Amino acid sequence: MTDQKVAIVTGAASGMGAALATHLIEKGWLVGLLDINEETGSQLATTLGPNAYFVQTDVASYTSQSEAFSAIFSRFGRIDVLCANAGVVDRSSLYIQSHRPPTVTELPPIPDLSATDIVFKGVIYGILLATHFMRFSPQTDGYGKKIVVTASAVGNVPYLALPEYSSAKCAVVAFVRATAPVLKQKEGIALSAVCPPFVATPMLPPFLIDAVGDARVTPVEDVVRAYELYLDQSDDRYAGEVREVVPGATEVVPLPKYRTEFARESVAAGIEPIFEVFHGGPSGVDQKELF
Question: Active site includes 186?
Fold first, then answer.
């Protein structure tokens, strides 16, 4: 077992993931690189040196992620941080504008919902597995376990151009906000999310850069700095925080509020009874933190 801190980065072969992995290696971390692209991921691991370890992973598959986490834990003996970064945009048009058949029986083709599988389900799988392995990982000089998720600015405000991706990122933000208080209370894990808009990565096609303009594209370095804000803290002061990231700055996205007192009281009254039935005991969370 190593005394060095160990991070897992998903979507690590390129873009934000590669930048995060490189940054952590430079800071002396051991880093597990998870990506579906074996050639690029292996090349990056070779470039980064012996402190990097690549495992080909399909984050949309629980089996694939669990095998990858097991391999990282087996190699390093601990997992301190998960950077849940993997993502893709819409693979199908859900507006079916090009599907206008002459008869009602000619149904639209099955949509490719890979964005939901990778962006949302993949994050849930990662958080679940990170929680498990972090329970078996020692503390390092009081440094608490952390999970940081790459969400998106279009997860805070709906985006009609990419409705599936936007909805999946919105679900990610909601999942972070919903689970962070429990992970903090029961597991000592600080869960947070960073929400950049368009970022200068290979996932951003040239036509979009042309349309948006270079001045409105967030550099990868700013996303890395937002991650660093969370990872540099030894405590859990930022647990549950969602932060928008733009060039040279970040800003906390406030927690949405219920519009009526009736709705707030109704939902609040159900938290503990529901939690006990579904999760086998009390949440342990002070509801003042939630509302």
Answer: no
